[in-house]
Amino acid sequence: MQKFLNFEVDSITPIHIKTSLKSMFNDFKQLTKVGLSISVVFTSITGYLLGAETIDYTIVLLLAIGGYLMVGASNAFNQVIEKDIDSLMQRTKNRPLPAGRMTVTTALIIAIVFTIVGIGILYSINPKCALFGAISIFLYTSAYTPLKAVTPLAVFVGAIPGAIPFMLGWVAATGEFGIEAGFLFLIQFFWQFPHFWAIGWLQFEEYNKAGLHMLPMDKKDKGAIVQIIFYTCIMILMSVAPVLKVTGNLYIYPITAVIILLLGILMLYYAFQLYKSEENTDARKLMLASVFYITIVPIIYVVDKFLH
User: Fold this and answer.
1) Contact call for residues 39 and 68 (beta carbons, < 8 A)
2) What letters, b where the CB count within 10 A reaches 16 and e where it falls short, cover 144-176?
3) Which pLDDT tens digit goes with each residue over 119-131?
4) Which of 301, 292, 259 is nearest to 170 (CA)?
5) Does the pLDDT of residue 169 top 50, yes or no?
6) What are residue 111's phi and psi, to 5 degrees?
7) Which of 53, 62, 123, 184 is 20 to 30 Å apart from 202, CA to CA?
8) DSSP 37-53
9) Tell me: the pLDDT tens digits for 240-276?
10) Helices 254-277 and 222-240 sit at what angle, rounded to 10 degrees?
11) Mean pLDDT within 152-179
């Protein structure tokens, strides 16, 4: 009998340990939203490449780590605050906190450690980076997250920390916040409205059930789509403005502006399609087009710079 018990323990324990570690790692990825965090790091690095005269790979590494920790902390704090709300929605009820796989204390420790270490790393680049990183975490967790349950204006507040990464890269490269960083901020700021309102359209019933206000005027109607179209137009104007040489050292060739304009028109096309149909399928197409836009436009900016 003892031999059988030893065999059973020896056979099963390593599998359990492996499964447990994998589950913990998956929960950690969900808590910090690893995909979103990586996309933010990517945007920050493109901002750095735009601002840098010579590339310092140490700063690139610090920016990547600090940026990841900054976004991961914001997401962890967000999920602590919205634990009960997440349990009400199909899309979020299996997150580690509402599902009970992780305690609030554990999530808070991760968030606090990420905040302290992340801001410290950004400070090692320059103090302005640390300041913007701290502002981002504060606004996301202390303003945007609680406001979602109060007013649709939460999206406007959330667009501020959401627009910092592109600009943060420029500040990391130059140590300055000038007109160039300001325009990078504005591009990402105005982009967020069509992007998040498209998501708000898709998830309207879920958000409504949870008491979250994620569409303008809290209505899934043509009025919301008109605002999506308006902010998409503003985003396009901000994106092509550097061709006019009004953005300091941030300048793009006319052909680059035309390419970016066409990408913006693609988003605008899907916004108009949504206006015509009011169908979720077109909202999804708009959301995917917005993700493509914010991924490819920074790359186009960087390529343009190195062609100068």
Assistant:
1) no
2) bbebbeeebebbebbbbbbbbbbbbbbbbbbee
3) 999 999 999 999 9
4) 301
5) yes
6) -65, -45
7) 184
8) HHHHHHHHHHHHHHH-S
9) 999 999 999 999 999 999 999 999 999 999 999 999 9
10) 180
11) 95
